[in-house]
Amino acid sequence: MKLKEPKVNWRNFEVACRLAKSCGVTTAMFTGKGEPTIFPDQITTYLEKMEKHNFPLIELQTNGILLSEKADKYDRHLKTWYEKGMTTIAVSIVHYEPEKNRQIYLPHKKSYIDLPRLIETLHGYGLSVRLTCIAANGFIDSSRVLDNLLSFAKENKVEQLTLTPVNKPDAEHNGHLESWNWTTAHCLRDEQLGEIKAHLESSGSKLMVLGHGAVVYDLHGQNICLNNCLSVQPDADGMRNIIFFPDGHIRYYWQYEGAILL
């Protein structure tokens, strides 16, 4: 059964774009709790409505599965997205080994996508590639494994690599027991994260500290950003995120219903 595109409040999307520009936003990202590439034509419509606002960087966060498995279908979409200002495709991963990624993203299938080929394909359209890796216990959980990931990224000419540790969850699961159990089992221990940080500090060159505290390094000639999951910063001077939802609501935190602007 074909999924129906979400209905979009385009009037409020225009409000969100104007608000973002007035706040000095330089990067717009397509993301969500689902997979954005399920509705490729709608991505094109968003880009068309964003054109007049001239955001310098426009990114798409994706698991890459549809882009890889249905490459012929997405050929025209990727060309159009590039022409309309998209700059970066951020592919979500948990490891450089296909089997590790399969366990998380395609548990119902026997094999994972050909990630190196996807990266090469995206480069062929002129797009930059970021690998956004969740650092989890049993996956990327030490400097040794991280160095292997860095080698994979460099071999495939990946422009950016982001590492976001799985943090220890709240004491209560708040109705999301399955995800709470997984996070509890796979969050990085303090010593694991400490060892990774020490490796980046001692072996890498610190390039930049971003406004929300993430640190960008050059390690072995590869860009890597050590991110943090701390999106709630009540003492910050400004908002880290302006999040537009198709129903027209504009929020600044994902997890709190009260964090709403419109």
Which features does this protein show?
single chain; 262 residues; alpha/beta; TIM Barrel; 10 strands; rSAM_sf; rSAM; iron-sulfur cluster binding; catalytic activity
Largest sheet: 8 strands, mixed
CATH class: Alpha Beta
Q: CA-to-CA gap between the ends?
A: 33 Å
Q: Could you tell me the strand content as a percent range?
A: 15-25%
* Number of beta strands: 10
Approximate shape? globular
Structural class: alpha/beta
Mean pLDDT reading: 92
Biggest sheet strand line-up = 1-2-3-4-5-8-7-6
The CATH superfamily bears the name Aldolase class I
Residue runs with pLDDT of under 50 for 5 or more positions: none
Q: What fold name goes in the CATH topology slot?
A: TIM Barrel
Q: Structurally, how many domains make up the residues?
A: 1
CATH architecture: Alpha-Beta Barrel
The topology string of helices and strands comes to HEHEHHEHHEHEHHEEEEE
